Every structure is written in C-alpha cells, then in structure tokens.
Amino acid sequence: MDSLLYLVRCVPSRLKYVEAMRDQIPNLVAFQDTKGHAMVTFLESLGFIQDRPCVMLEDDIELTSNFCAKIEPVIAAHPASFKTFFSLSKKYTASRWANGGNFCMSQCLYFPPGYALHIAQYYADWPRKEEHPTGYDFLIADWLKSRKERYYIHCPSLVQHLPVVSLIDGRRSKFRQSPTFER
C-alpha cells in the first residue's frame, strides 16, 4: 500500500521504542510531542495526516512480527472503515465490528482517507474538552457515535502495550496488555 502513511506519536524519552518500530516500518514518520500535551500532539498529527490513509501508532508498543504484511490486507479488505489493532478484551478474541461510541484504546489505529481532518474539525466544538483534556479516545468515540458509525477491532492484536508507566496518567496500570497479541 504505497500511499499508506505510518505515523507514530512519540516523546523524546521513548525514541528507542520508535527505532525498534523502524526495523519493520522504514518509512515510519515520528511525530514528536514538542509541547508536552498529548491532545495537542494528537490534533497536530491529524493536521499532518490531512486526508491521507494512515496507520497511527503510539510510542509505547511492540509490533507483531511481519507487521506491515499482517495489517495491510486487513485495511485493504475495508479501506473506508476506521480500525483498531489492539484489544484488551478477554471475552472477545476474534475480530469484530463494534459501536463507535464504545471505542477505546488507541495504540494502533487506521484512519481512512479524510477521517483525520473530520476528527480534527469535530474537536473544535467538542463539548468534553475540559472533562477529557487528554482523552483522544473519548474524542474518537464521540465522533464515531455522532456519525452512528461502527469500527473494526482486529484480533489477534497486532501490537502489544509495553509494561511502562503512562506519561499521560501515571496512576494507570502498566499491566494493560492484550491477551491475543502474538509476537
């Protein structure tokens, strides 16, 4: 998929994880948080994506082996659908469609063409900015819900959340790993 953009949102202290990702994704764009604010970086990355199809990654993950060869056919099967490639669910271990309002976990996402711009525009009038100043997963969920849109959860997870302390909220458990991840 030549036109598919791969982007990782990252902070300087986690560039070693980004370099590990580059072993599998040589054209990976590292979009650094220069302001120390997750939501600002998320919105700026959406502006960078514009209307391109994009796989957006977080900097605290491990990729499955042959990552691109596994993710690209899933995207190609439904290129106009929003997707996530990480799930914490122990109940659901197979790929499935879910209601957009239930979206959670943004370790590895696929944005179809145009979605990044639409989500950024939605943020301008998003009523929950103060309630969730770093909650881009809430933003995405609310946007999908406003469109009555479902999204695709791929299993097995193609990325694994590393057991590191969250830089957004240090109270979050560092044990948020997917039970379906396969190296």
How would you describe this protein?
With 183 residues, this protein is α/β, with parallel strands linked by helices. It has one domain: Alpha-Beta Complex (Spore Coat Polysaccharide Biosynthesis Protein SpsA, Chain A), CATH 3.90.550. It contains five helices and nine strands. The strands form two sheets. A seven-stranded mixed β-sheet has the order 2-1-3-7-5-8-6, with helices on one face. Strands 4-9 form a two-stranded antiparallel ribbon. Helix 1 links the parallel strand 1 and strand 2. Helix 2 packs across helix 4. It starts with a strand and ends in a 22-residue tail after the last strand. The relative contact order is 0.19. The model has no long low-confidence stretch (mean pLDDT 91).
Oligomeric state of this protein? single chain
**CATH topology title:** Spore Coat Polysaccharide Biosynthesis Protein SpsA, Chain A
Count of DSSP H/I helices:
5
* Spatial order of the strands forming the largest sheet: 2-1-3-7-5-8-6
Compressed to H and E, one letter per element, the order equals EHEHEEHEEEHHEE
Secondary structure class reads alpha/beta
Q: What would you call the shape?
A: globular
Helix content: 25-40%
Summarize model confidence as the mean pLDDT. Answer: 91
Instruction: Summarize the main sheet.
Output: 7 strands, mixed
Overall number of domains: 1
Total DSSP E strands: 9
Distance between the termini: 23 Å
CATH class: Alpha Beta
CATH architecture verdict: Alpha-Beta Complex
| Stretches with pLDDT under 50, minimum 5 residues | none
Beta-strand proportion = 15-25%
